[in-house]
TrEMBL record:
Protein name: Rho family-interacting cell polarization regulator 1
Known function: Downstream effector protein for Rho-type small GTPases that plays a role in cell polarity and directional migration. Acts as an adapter protein, linking active Rho proteins to STK24 and STK26 kinases, and hence positively regulates Golgi reorientation in polarized cell migration upon Rho activation. Involved in the subcellular relocation of STK26 from the Golgi to cytoplasm punctae in a Rho- and PDCD10-dependent manner upon serum stimulation.
Residues covered by region (Disordered): 32-53
GO cellular component entries: Golgi apparatus
Gene3D superfamilies: Leucine-rich Repeat Variant (1.25.10.10)
SUPFAM superfamilies per UniProt: ARM repeat (SSF48371)
Location relative to the cell: Cytoplasm; Golgi apparatus
The keyword Nucleotide-binding is assigned to this record: no
Amino acid sequence: MVHSSCPSSCLVNKPAHLKGFNLDIPDFSRKPPSLPPSSLEPKAEDSLNSPSAHPLSTECPALDTALVQHLYYCSRLLLKLGTFGPLRCQEAWALERLLREARVLEVVCELSRRWEIPATSAQEGKGPVGSGLVTALKLLPCSTLPTLVCPPAYSVADGLLHLLTVVQFSASRPGFLTFWDQCTEGLSPFICPVKQVLLTFCNQYGARLSLRQPGLAEAVCVKFLEDMLGQKLPRRPQPGPGEQLTVFQFWSYVETLDSPSMEAYVTETAEEVLLVQNLNSDDQAVVLKALRLAPEGRLRRDGLRALSSLLVHGNNKVMAAVSTQLRSLSLGPAFRERALLCFLNQLEDEDVQTRVAGCLALGCIKAPEGIEPLVYLCQTDTEVVREAARQSLQQCGEEGQSAHRRLEESLDALPRIFGPGSMASTAF
């Protein structure tokens, strides 16, 4: 399973791996300084014959397409920098993703830089693309792309079609390489349409998963894709080519998983999808049964968010069952850490009800780590969120109750400048 979207680094003032980095963001809202008219006149070196006038390219159209997609993704992540909340979880998450993207861009730049290296023999490659890329891969450090594995029956040029599918997880994560190979059969190994990934997944796992529930394979694959892409997929067909998935996104995502194989991942994710569906059921009996049978290991981000939602939308019996379950499971250190990160991340969600649910869930697990952000919400958020935050503070032991008393005292000490009495005194 993939880690929570709020990284553990958001529990401190600054992620350890980012210390020393200058995170100041330039003000792009200012207009650039005006240039003198002479600087706008075309010069000889600016002609179309100049190499700088040609579009930037790796000389491989498929790799160019993949690279452009990663740059667009980086631009979306950059928009999250400077978006502050109680813990800056969204910003810390975006920074971690940007560091991962920087690793991808380093690989692409190195491959592009060594693209034109000639082959030294006929067996080393066929054509400039194959020879240059294969030679470049041999020169890359092992920590970047450790080994280029080509079956004996393949020439190195044929192995080019599979070179980026054999990455760090190929030896210890059976099934993932085979799946990507099937998705890109007859296509470029660098990029694959999301529709093709969904079709391949359903063809491979649809029969087995449909025995559990019709349509389960599609639901599992959609979660798989959304976690890799870092965004929700449209539920209705959209005009145009649609979303694309790059081998680098696939590679980076698989490296974050705990699942030892593709088969194990599909099984675990199917269990999580079914659990979330049952927790979101309108049938109280189904919800209560799901709560009783939910093991600690199956409650990941989506399951935890579904649990917290029941604290807002469930009836009294369901809410009591959820509170009991969260208190019991939070005694386990591994579960408590996952739950804490998930619920803290919810405090920065755009949806009001999700923030309310995060507040109530933090109270259930009695998390002292949540006291400071809860106090922040009591001072800044809407009334319904403030009330939930105050309620949770009172459940966080003596420390939380003390913080609640100080908060109430500070609020009572504020002058009532908009009260009826003060309005009369300031009329003139």
